[in-house]
Amino acid sequence: MEVLYDGDRVVGVRADDKGIDRNGDRKPNFQPGYDLKAKVTVFAEGPRGSLTKQLVERMGLDHGCNPQVYTVGVKELWEVPAGRITRGQVIHTAGWPLTSRQFGGGFIYALSDTRVSVGLVAGIDYEDPRFDPHNAFQLFKTHPRVKKILEGGQMVRYGAKTIPEGGYFSVPRTVAEGAVIVGDSAGFLNSQRLKGIHMAMKTGMFEALLAGDTSAAGLGKFEGRWRSSWVKEELWKVRNYHQGFERGFWQGSLHAALQFVTGGRGLRARYGARPGHEHMKLLSEVAGEPFERAKPDGKLTFDKLSDVFHSSTHHEENQPSHLKIADFDICNNRCTREYGNPCQYFCPAAVYEMENKPDGSGKRLKLNPSNCVHCKTCDIADPYQIINWVCPEGGGGPHYDGM
After folding, report:
1. CATH code for residues 2-67+166-277
2. CA Rg, the chain, in Å?
3. pLDDT digits (tens, 9 = 90+) for 35-89
């Protein structure tokens, strides 16, 4: 898909052709793409939206902003025996199994007396290219206190999602001629509380159509309204939160404490940040053994493919890959030497696999796009920024029920 413009005005989007096979040839059910035009196009694609990226870059909407930074949340839904937890109970953790150089922690939410949402959130600004967030989540469940809640229960659903945590200084200009950016696409999320649904709802309310003025000036009132609402107030109180953890957990904890007593300021009025992928180190710079690997037992801990099965992910198999790799030569050669192909670790759905070449000369990247749970971690974490996640053919993807 692509954004449609009339000069510098957004006039809609262009849908891709449908019914194309994996080789780019037309299938019997081929349907040409079409232009969908509107007075106002609302970009509400969730984090790292493929169309929002195009719009922000073309219009320079992020000029003067901090780069957006992200975490990835890996999550399972469990049915557990009654008496293990009380409906409404909330448990948050920090640290283990993450290292002191990483940002993140776990969560356990009791949706009822027998249904539990359990997961791990890890910053996509880690240093070790061998880090695997799905593996870390499986280790998290082996902690005695977590295991005590889940043991004897049954995992019923799995999912993963990236979370925009850059905060107030990472929110781009949210309006352009004929366009508005809302929700996670703009980065409206309280990174301290991991909460953004309320902001997505609030920022989805605007009056331009009722007023009949969809110019940049008319839509510009939307920018002023959210900045004068409780959305700005809530973001301002945590404006430097994630950035305070740039140098690890312990320094981050100190910054968080200072920010709490200074109303979100901390040591500086505005903390800087780097894009998450720039934190990743070369293999030659990483000391020590790789992270401990969980041993899937099919009861408490699971491998990636078992979890993907529980995401109810479905894609039309015979279609072009929605994961666009700009240069496979980088993946098969340079990345193998420099980073050890971190895509095979950071993807929580086993989409990226390094397989032996037929001639035995080494390994090459194999894509399994039908596994994709649409978290967009690859688009964000790739150290070369050559992976572009785009929408697959309509209707494909995970089907989250009760997540």
Report:
1. 3.50.50.60
2. 22
3. 999 999 999 999 999 999 999 999 999 999 999 999 999 999 999 999 999 999 9
How far, in Å, CA of 206 to CA of 182, rounded? 10
Q: Which two tokens stand for residue 9?
A: 């005005």
The verdict on pTM exceeding 0.70 is: yes
Nearest CA to 86 among 60, 115, 62? 115
When mean pLDDT is compared across 92-96, 278-282, 290-294, the lowest value belongs to 290-294
- In sequence order, what are the residues at sequence separation of 6 or more whose Cβ sits closer than 8 angstroms to the Cβ of residue 313? 349, 370, 371, 372, 373, 397, 398, 399
**23 CB burial (10 A radius; 0-12, 13-18, 19+):** exposed
Residue type, 365: L
- Rounded-to-integer distance, Cα 117 and Cα 112, Å: 10
Phi (first) and psi of residue 235, to 5 degrees = -65, -35
> What CA–CA distance (Å, rounded) separates 164 from 144?
31
Map out the domains of the chain as residue ranges.
2-67+166-277
394, 315 in Cβ contact below 8 A? Answer: no
**In the chain, how many H helices and how many E strands?**
14, 17
**Other C-beta atoms within 10 Å of 337: how many?**
11
The structure tokens listed for 277 are 């992928």
For residue 217 the two structure tokens come to: 């000036």
